[in-house]
Amino acid sequence: MNNYKKFFKLIDILLGIMMGIMVVFVFLNVVLRFVFNTGLAFSEEVSRYTFVFMTFIGAIVAMRESEHLSVDMLVKRFPKKGQIISSIIVNVISLVMMVILMLGSVKMVIQSSGARTAVLGLPFSFLYSICILSSVCIGILAVEKIYLAIKYPDKFKLQASDYIEKEFENNKHDVKEID
């Protein structure tokens, strides 16, 4: 389990580094274009591909923390057993979608093995490989969530949080009744 936590800590650090790289290159390019009427050709590609990588790696983090968008208005009204069954169904669907994404990404990596980006000369197969990593990690997390829901149903709680309801609960105590 320790390696598991280290892996996700590494992902968090990697996301921070990638965000910093993207911000630096975009800011630098804006300054150079505005002040010197020139720019760095490679900075646009670096920023674009860093953003794509951040999106796919961020999806792994969102899956781990159960922060993907969901409409749980109906599911929250289910009894606990219904919530568990709903969670299992959603995670099975996610797992199937990740298998489809992985298989399509493998095909893209193979098809684009000779192609390179225009400025940096990076192989497109490297760029498409992030889809494979993301789909495998999200698939593993979906299997873990299914396993935990089946193995420990008494510890299951609906992960998605309703920020609006929390806000109303917090404000209930602050509101004073006016006579």
Please render the helix and strand layout as text.
Layout: H1 2-36, H2 41-64, H3 80-111, H4 124-151, H5 163-172
Keywords: Cell inner membrane, Cell membrane, Membrane, Transmembrane, Transmembrane helix, Transport
InterPro entries: DctQ (IPR055348), TRAP_DctQ (IPR007387)
Pfam families: DctQ (PF04290)
Kindly describe this structure.
The chain is mostly helical and 179 residues long. The chain has 2 domains: 65 residues; 102 residues. Helices cover 72% and strands 0% of the residues. It has 5 helices and no strands. The longest helix is centred in the N-terminal third of the chain and has 35 residues. The protein is elongated, with a radius of gyration of 22 Å.
The figure for the number of domains is 2
Would you count the extended β strands for me?
0
Tell me which oligomeric state these chains represent. single chain
> Which structural category do the helix and sheet elements fall into?
mainly alpha
Could you give a short account of the major beta sheet?
A: none
Tell me the radius of gyration: 22 Å
Can you write the helix and strand succession as a string? HHHHH
Which range does the strand content fall in? under 5%
Mean pLDDT: 86
H/I helix tally: 5
Low-confidence stretches: none
| Shape category | elongated
| Cα separation of the termini | 57 Å
Helix content: over 70%
